[in-house]
Structure formats: C-alpha cells, structure tokens
C-alpha cells in the first residue's frame, strides 16, 4: 500500500513540476516576445502606434502567465504536505519556496 502511495505521489509531483516548468516557460517567452517587439519597432524607427494593439495583447497575456505561474508556485507548500498526509515519510523532492524566489529573481520583468 505504501509503495502505491509513493508511486501516486511521485506521479503527481512529476506532473506538477512539468506544469510549473511550462508556466515558467510561458511567462519567460512572453516577456522575451514583448521585448523583441519593442526592440524591432525601435530599430526600424516606426511610429509608436505601429503594433500597439499586438503589444497590448501580448502584455495582457504576460500578466495572465504571471498570475498562473504565481499560483503554481504558491502550491509548493501544499504539495510538500502530501507525503505526510498519506502516511509517507517526507520525500523531500519538491522545490522549496526559496528555490521559487530564486527562480523568480531570474525571470526578466515585463518591458513597459
């Protein structure tokens, strides 16, 4: 029974970590895209209104991605409680809140 519980927890943990990685990647790619859009417009000395609607939508999607990633990161403490809640010793393989803070410091901020 404990073996099945451990396998179930590890399956959930792995799915969670894959989801978190996808959320972080989405956020980072959105920020890079927004930055590139601004840089390319500036290089060509295009009018400020050129691509403004697209920039607004990309900026809005970055805000959604940021909220999604933040929500996933807030799930860490709850994920760490699962092993004890199902009768397992602390597995200790989920990222800590400090790891999340370190990661977030490495994510570039949205270019405004």
Keywords:
mainly alpha, 112 residues, rod-shaped, 4 helices, 76% helix, 0% strand, disordered C terminus
Low-pLDDT ranges: 108-112
The percent range for strand residues is: under 5%
Estimate nothing, just give the exact number of structural domains. 1
How would you characterize the largest beta sheet? none
Number of helices: 4
Overall residue-averaged pLDDT value: 84
Number of strands: 0
Helix content: over 70%
Structural class comes to: mainly alpha
Describe the structure.
- This protein has 112 residues and is mostly helical.
- It has one domain (2-106).
- 76% of the residues lie in helices and 0% in strands.
- It has 4 helices and no strands.
- The chain has helices at 2-43, 52-74, 76-85, 97-106.
- The radius of gyration is 19 Å and the shape is rod-shaped.
- The protein starts with a helix and ends in a 6-residue tail after the last helix.
């Amino acid at each position: 029974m404990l073996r099945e519980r451990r396998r179930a927890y590890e399956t959930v943990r792995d799915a969670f970590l894959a989801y978190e990685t996808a959320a972080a990647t989405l956020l980072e790619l959105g920020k890079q895209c927004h930055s590139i859009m601004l840089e390319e417009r500036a290089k060509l000395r295009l009018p400020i209104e050129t691509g403004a609607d697209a920039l607004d939508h990309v900026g809005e999607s970055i805000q959604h991605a940021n909220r999604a990633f933040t929500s996933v990161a807030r799930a860490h403490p709850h994920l760490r409680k699962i092993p004890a809640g199902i009768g397992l010793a602390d597995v200790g393989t989920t990222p800590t809140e400090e790891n999340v803070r370190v990661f977030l410091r490495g994510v570039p901020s949205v270019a405004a």
